Amino acid sequence: MVGVTTDWRPDEFLDGYEVRTIPLATDPDGEDPIFASLVRRPLDGITPRGAVLYVHGFTDYFFQTELADFFHERGYAFYALDLRKCGRSLKAHHQPHYTSDLAFYDEELNASLDIVTDEVSAAGGTPQVIVAGHSTGGLVTPLWLNRLRTGDPERHGHVVGLLLNSPWLDLQGEAVLRSTPASKLISAVGSVRGMQSLPRELSSAYGDSLHADVHGEWTYDLVRKPLSGFPVTFGWLSAVRAGHRQVHAGLDVGVPALVLRSDKSSFRGKYDASVDTADCVLDVKQIAQWSGCIGGRVLAVAVTDARHDVFLSIESVRKRAYAEVDAWMESEFDK
User: Fold this and answer.
1) Which InterPro entries match (predicted)?
2) Which residues pair with 279 in a beta bridge?
3) How many separate helices (H) and strands (E) can be counted in the chain?
4) Does residue 3 lie within any of the structural domains?
5) What phi, psi does 121 have (nearest 5°)?
6) Which range marks the domain in which residue 98 is found?
7) In angstroms, rounded to a whole number, what is the distance separating the alpha carbons of residues 32 and 164?
8) CA spacing 20 to 30 A to 131: which of 138, 169, 181, 212?
9) Is the pTM of this model over 0.90?
């Protein structure tokens, strides 16, 4: 990895937050220059008992300050990583969120983990980290920890837990999309025309349910998180499907894991009230089916009426989700 900058600066998207750039090595997918962005909530004088490292999903970036506040109030330093070509790390010459291999993200994940543990130690805290991942981030992070456990056990030793929020563990939709011929087609096209978009439009129902300018209560940057999502490319989907196959074969993240999801899915072509109390992006039955494949100690919880991002659900629902996280943390880390 080409060196890491040491300058924290005010974040342009969130008041009171800071961001630093993590330069990355040459892009295997040919879209140089690339970099990642690490965001932090200042400690405000607390001595951290640990830290959280959060990783976003597809068509997403970190803006969920309520989540950061939740952990800060419990004495944890909070950091969030915008991966290469995502959110704060997205530039005009990038295909948004593109990678041809999810393992390429290990570079910025490792660098971020090192920064977090070094800073927590410097603040007099305990360098133990809970990794949190949402949606595609909930696929990327267990794959990373599985590799880290065997390939870099010293670095892995700083991770004490994994919190997954509606992880993307299989391909939703018709069964034919998950068939061997379909997977081979995606892989074949992805290998030669990786940045070609699939001929399928994404619904704006989820984005409409979230954003304050439409039907929701959240404000975020629509350039970095458009209501209808970014185009899905063959190369990126091929990388995701390879990750799915690894999950289905069985992983061992090496730490206790909590998996949160909604109790139901509701797929809609356009917004209606049902998507406010359901996952309208992923099939929650698939999340339930595969959650046990990520490790040997997994607690899976269905949160009634949750949205796809459980922590962006309506207020009463996300309070229940936070209560589940509280109970899990008390059980695993407050003994």
Assistant:
1) AB_hydrolase_fold, Hydrolase_4, MAG_DAG_Lipase
2) 265
3) 9, 9
4) no
5) -65, -40
6) 9-333
7) 31
8) 212
9) yes
> Scanning the structure block, which residue is given the tokens 């196959």?
245
**Which one is predicted more confidently, 331 or 179?**
331
Contact between 250 and 287 (Cβ < 8 Å):
no
Say if residues 83 and 55 touch (Cβ distance below 8 Å). Answer: yes
CA–CA gap between residue 315 and residue 157 (Å, rounded):
35
Q: Burial level of 293, CB count in 10 A (0-12/13-18/19+)?
A: middle
Q: What is the CATH number of the domain that holds 211?
A: 3.40.50.1820
In a domain, 2, yes or no: no
For residue range 228-280, list pLDDT tens digits in order: 999 999 999 999 999 999 999 999 999 999 999 999 999 998 999 999 999 99
The answer to whether position 78 is within a domain reads yes
CB 71 within 8 A of CB 84: no
Strand-by-strand arrangement of the 76-82 sheet: 9-10, 18-23, 35-41, 76-82, 50-55, 129-134, 159-165, 257-262, 298-303
Distances (CA, A) of 302 to 8, 252, 264, 294, 316: 38, 22, 9, 17, 15
Residue 16 Rama label (left phi>0; alpha psi -120 to 50; beta): left
**pLDDT tens-digit readout, 48-85:** 999 999 999 999 999 999 999 999 999 999 999 999 99
Amino acid identity of residue 105, one-letter, is Y
Strands 18-23 and 9-10: antiparallel
Query: Considering the domain boundaries, does residue 136 fall inside one?
Result: yes
Q: Is 2 left (phi over 0), alpha (psi -120 to 50) or beta?
A: beta
Contacts of 121 (CB under 8 A, 6+ apart): 127
Q: How far, in Å, CA of 248 to CA of 169, rounded?
A: 8
10 DSSP β-pair partners? 18
Residue in this structure with the two tokens 């490319």, named with its chain if needed: 233
Q: How many residues does the chain have?
A: 335
